[in-house]
């Protein structure tokens, strides 16, 4: 079963979330009245034009940013408590690997912070490098890997924590289309196998439609939710599904939503 | 590769030596002219030239005079001899190294404090900067005299002057280095709920290593200057500073210049050594080598 049952528990719940950045040029209303429920096992994409608050929303969930209004709970806890319990793995737009650590040591970084013993760390490192197809690259340094491989390493690093939730901020944004397709398929497999909840920021309509069970279309100034589109293309999703009428229909709907979100500027 | 590096250096050295000879002739000529005048002779340039390069107490000794003096006081003297420049260089070097190690440790400690505490950041930084505006020539005699009066002489007071000069670049460089991690890396540690110690040892400290070595290069050169300056006010009997002082008492310009050259070479070697260790460590840390 692919889409979470209606009874599935809500893991992220926001209500009338507001966030205003006080800058030298005056206040920036990055998030306005965000009310959103994300259920366990969902794959939710946030899509919208630059500056509409996608990253900010993800960072609020991750307790990297603090809302100025409204409420938010993660696993029934405050984001701060959830972070302390290491409820999520965060994947940044850039791989953000430490250049002085080998790939294996980079993946082991969060495990060292968690205080896991050597054997457990080694086991998790090789398991997750295997998962992202990087077995054999343990001893390499980040600069010896391509951008796509680095990003995979950073995903392995997030997975090594074994979180129930993955927060991904345009993880494949900087990669070429072919690598991106490949990683999309891999990510989908991973999601189907592990039933993790994934919140995924993207600029790409096909990527969002291909991956998601739910697409949140956002619009800027102030950053808000324009439309939430359900999207369910079934368990088996080869890349070719992107040529099917159902796929194109949802993609069209997202595009309309984005255009409308822009229209009343 | 090596040729392309050596050639420019040799060219510069050759140019310096040529200019040096020219000035030696110009500066030492008046003495020879007045000597000839007193003897009631006139002296032509051809006779003048060799004489300007062979004076006992020239205004500016010629390069070969200095080279001969250095050779005689290093290779031809036992290192335990009070006339050996190697002995004097070692006396200065030991104070330099001790002071440098203390200065580096102090600089790092201050930087760690400043980076982790807003109070220290606000309160310490102005004092650290003020400390460097006091001319070391004014401060050195006081330090030496104060320590002498309580019976501490020799290595330690000199080393303290080195410490005083070297902690500053290290502190400033390390504050910058410890603050150099990208926001994204800091955020990453935050998502792991890493504590301050973990963030320090796993992120801040490794990020600061290149900054540490850059500032240590400045620090060790400053330490050497400090140790030499520390030898001047007491009329110390050993050390490169003592050689400079003794040379100037007795008008032994050749001796002064020998000590200066040895000090410069020593500084070059020390800075080079630190750069080499820094480069080695960088490679060990897997940082991509800059294209040569
Ligand atoms: N730390 C900050 N301080 C001030 N303003 C900020 C800060 N972070 C984000 N903003 C502003 O908040 C708004 C939303 O930014 P955000 O990064 O969330 O957009 P985004 O949807 O992720 O855009 P992009 O697609 O370009 O990544 C923008 O106007 C941005 O300038
Ligand atoms: Mg963004």
In whole angstroms, the N-to-C terminal distance of chain A is 41 Å
CATH architecture annotation of the largest domain in chain B: Orthogonal Bundle
Number of helices of chain A: 8
CATH superfamily of the largest domain in chain A: P-loop containing nucleotide triphosphate hydrolases
What is the helix fraction of residues of chain B, given as a range? over 70%
Q: What order do the SSEs of chain A take from the amino end to the carboxyl end, as H and E?
A: EEEHEHEHHHEHEHEEH
Instruction: Please describe the biggest sheet of chain B, giving its number of strands, its sense, and whether it closes into a barrel.
Output: none
> Low-confidence parts of chain A, pLDDT < 50 over ≥5 residues?
none
How many H/I helices of chain B?
Answer: 11
What does this structure look like?
The complex is a heterodimer of chains A (265) and B (292). Chain A has 8 helices and 9 strands. Chain A is globular. Chain A has helices spanning 54-61, 79-84, 103-114, 118-131, 147-160, 177-194, 205-211, 245-263, and strands at residues 10-23, 26-39, 43-47, 69-74, 88-91, 165-169, 197-202, 214-219, 224-230. Chain A is α/β, with parallel strands linked by helices and 265 residues long. Chain A has 2 domains: 10-87 and 165-260, 3-Layer(aba) Sandwich (Rossmann fold); 103-162. Chain B is built from 11 helices and no strands. In chain B, helix 4 packs antiparallel against helix 5. Chain A binds chain B through residues 62-64, 83-84, 86, 88-90, 92, 94, 96, 98-102, 109-110, 112-114, 141, 143, 161, and chain B through 182, 184-185, 187-194, 198, 202-203, 206, 209, 285-288. Bound molecules: adenosine-5'-triphosphate and magnesium ion. Magnesium ion (MG) is lined by residues 54-55, 169 of chain A.
